[in-house]
Fold:
Amino acid sequence: MITTPPKEIIIVGGGTAGWMSASLLQHAWGHLGCKITVLDSVEIPKIGVGEGSTPALKRFFETLAIDESEWMPKCNATYKCGISFPNWASNSSKNSYFHPFYSNIDLKTGKAFIHNTDLRRQGFLVDEHPDNYWLQSFLAKENRSPKTNIQLNGVMEYGYHFDSALLGEYLKNRAKNLGVGHLSDTVTQVNMSSCNQIKQLLTASGRKLESELFIDCTGFSALLIGKTLNTAYKSYADGLLNDSAIAIPSSIDCSKPIPPFTESAALTAGWAWKIPLSSRYGNGYVYSSKHISPEDAEAELRAHVGVSCEGMPAKHLSMRLGRVEKHWNENVLAVGLSQGFIEPLEATALMSVQFTLEEFINSYSRNNQIQQNLFNNKVNSILDAIKDYIQAHYFLNTRTDSQYWSDARNIDNCSSKLKQIIDVWDHPTGDLEQVLTNTNSLAAYLTPSWYCLLAGKGRFNQVAMKPLSNEKAVSIESIKHYFNTVTQHFPLHKQQLQALYGQKWEKPS
Ligand SMILES: Cc1cc2nc3c(=O)[nH]c(=O)nc-3n(C[C@H](O)[C@H](O)[C@H](O)COP(=O)(O)OP(=O)(O)OC[C@H]3O[C@@H](n4cnc5c(N)ncnc54)[C@H](O)[C@@H]3O)c2cc1C
Structure:
């Protein structure tokens, strides 16, 4: 628990990670006299992608007491009920499922899903498709908003889509108004003290900046944590094949329904995202450069998106997948791409930014090596658990149309934890919850998410032949009826946004 915060913090980097860091640190420590300054460079561009979130971002805005009506219209934001995963299988009846943001509202139907799926694992003829058991899946199917005026017996979880540049700008203006300092300059040299701490930053305009604590938000360049402190780095490249991405915007027709979900469709050598904003769609292809060239990937993405992206510019990016071993090393905390990156299949990067900061604020105390080690171990276990969950998507694919999908199924590239999870799942009566607990795999994704993934990808060893005898499955018809009734109380996503945006709906920026 914090007693005395640092007197001064310099955050190097003004991307989303930099301004999220400034916002949370100012909120936690600003009133205790901690002076926070963000330094960023107009010479070095931000990554400029990252438009999807998990429900963690809802908590971020709640913590800062920022209302949706305040930030969403300024960031062209929409609601997100979850992610759909079409075309990840060669079998057409099993080639799509929805990963919902479930909440305690789903407790009863979620239990039914797990019960029925366990029966299916044993070979009984039961409905085990995840799309039939979660409120958000039904809302997504009908393009409804996850918000309602009716009283629910639980708190609804949901995420957002947003324009990343506008979100960064919004957080920057807000933080500056609250007293966070801002310098536009480029760090050209970093000087160390004799005890291996960062002492001073020299900048292009001749500034000499000193601070007690530095936050490295310099993106993939990892200027402080990597280039200066040489912090050990664990690559995820063996397990995750994708190392490149292309982003292309496309027009959105607001006379049509606006989907409240991200689509992550499998393509020949990776997958394509489609993210609805109020002003446009964001599209992208995350792919392996060993399996497809940038030119072919761009052509495939353009064909996938269709005419709505004609004439739109493409942005090509490389991605470094992995993480540092120590996110908090000496007097540097790395946050964002500088601390590591797992490819964006489940849009987890900003959630990791938030976890890192929340955990750091809770565990910060000066010169306490034990706290520092505990903090680093915790962040590492969260990132490793996310990485295993993402890798499982690839490992479980059943596509046969390209070398890429066959390479992605290589069990040798899975961590020992992921191998244990698959082994237990494949055993008809294996206890999945137990193995997830034993392997610390619940640090990022809870049991229902693992069931959705394994069942949604159709991973069943037993052919479904056994009729139900003494075993009782929960009736899927009653669950469908329940959801079809409940969803009528949720407005259409577009209506909800129109009400929230007011006049701005007609003139998006
Ligand atoms: C293809 C792709 C898709 C993604 N999709 C998602 C998603 O859906 N959801 C999600 O949560 N995340 C996503 N991400 C990740 C997300 O984009 C980043 O986590 C987020 O933008 C934060 O980036 P950042 O602030 O760490 O780095 P950047 O945006 O790169 O910012 C780096 C900053 O450091 C500054 N800087 C660097 N060097 C210096 C220097 N020497 N002196 C001064 N300043 C310096 C730069 O000027 C810049 O301001 C995606 C990433 C990729 C590659």
Notes: Residues 12-18, 39-41, 44, 46-47, 49-53, 164, 186-187, 217-219, 221, 223, 245, 284, 286, 317, 319, 336-338, 344, 347, 349-350 surround flavin-adenine dinucleotide (CB under 6 Å). The longest strand covers residues 244-250. The chain has 16 helices and 21 strands.
